[in-house]
Amino acid sequence: MNRTTLSLIVGVTALAAVTGFAALSAPDAPGTETAAKAAAQLPVERTSLLCPAPSTSDLAETSYTSFTPVTKGTGSGGKAELRQAAEEPADGGDQGKGDGGKDDGKSGGDKPAKPVLTPKEPGKPVTGDSSGGDAPALVGTADGRFAPGWTVQETTEVAAGTGRGLQGVNCTAPDTDFWFPGASTDADRTDYVHLTNPDDSAAVVDIELYGKDGLLKSAVGEGITVPPHTDEPVLLSTLTGERQTNLTVHVNVRSGRVGAAVQALDDKLGGDWLAASTDPSGSLVLPGIPEDATAVRLVAFTPGDADADLKVRLASPSGLITPAGHESVHVKGGMTTAVDLGDVTRGEAGSLVLTPTDRSVPVVAALRVVRGKGDKQETAFIPATRPVGTRATSADNSAKGSTLSLTAPRAAATVKVTASAGSEGGTPVSKTYTIKAGTTQDIEPPAPSGLKGTYALTVETVSGGPVHGARTLKASENGVPAFTVQTLPDDRGTVAVPEADEDLSVLQK
Fold first, then answer.
1. DSSP string, 197-229
2. CB neighbours (10 Å) of residue 463?
């Protein structure tokens, strides 16, 4: 093996350990040596998260909860911290004065703002809050023992007005490609795509909108510049003159990277954050439809030219069932399809399972879920999500109002659910559950003994599966059944790193 090959392995292995996004394999080839043994799962060493600006309402009350589960093999060093996205430059310009250019008093000169949240140890949540419509976006990094599985939940209560109710979102890692089926430019909706840039250089982003007849023409959606360390909310109705009830939004980053989420606000049905769907796939799972949902709408889109035919099934507490009148859905290539499923759960816990009826065509999908009736209705969204995998975490749980929903669409599974210590006190507790094949189980999650404050839930797959999950938060607001749903994908807290056969430290130049 020559020096060039060995140098490449050293560099890429280091990158994998730091970022957590690379997995290496070196297949054997006849007549050649192999420089790597079976890959070991090592904790990631650095994680980044971005939280969008929570609201423009003066009535908004926002809480942030940061949590890192305890992970073996991380050592004792490291830290995690969240700061406001913008930094105020030395010349006293507007950059860093928060949303709307208002001076928030938290920045000075060319120094970054003080951290908003700084956890002291893994295994214990830390919380913070803000109020009003000037709360900025937050950017954060965690390294060392705080990096693997780091989770931040942003939860906002809006007492009245457009989007009133409970809005929640998991702060996201920066990326370059996002799909959001379920957005809208309808007259009753005010939807924003929030683009948060954590880096020192500007990002350039294209936003594409796909309606029932395909791509909507929009010159202003191309080449959007997101300045460094800022959150850029883009109102969807400014990108097109067409009113469309159901849209799929595609965020594609030309240069740089961003965090992206859609804030969907309705004049009558409240509102919530729409997180990105998992990567396009032939089969999808949308977990955690509340048992008392009064209306469920499926919005699906296939990015390619080929049509997709999907079998629709509901994973109920007793098994997989086919909703009457909605046995399948046909999704035309490049066009957004919406299907109203009504009260599909009929008073029971449920998750939607989509599988190809014939050939597999990649699809993205999300559910718009409504609870309540008349003028007392509230909306939340459930995107298709990847499995819980090794471990997934949900922060910002309280003694009442949290429901954990787990589904095993293909094979039975055993999972361990751990309630962390409380943010102000309490002792962790774990409990094991068995999820039967094809079923969804709603769990009133275990709470730490002596709980004070909020706590986090960690779900680990022990055997079987795959398992998909979601957590629902509920709160009554003036008779409105306010709620928000966050899915539980694998936290990707570890990365596969091959073990070298040779001692690379003794290589000569």
1. E-SSS-EEEEEEEEETTEEPP-GGGSSEEE-TT
2. 10
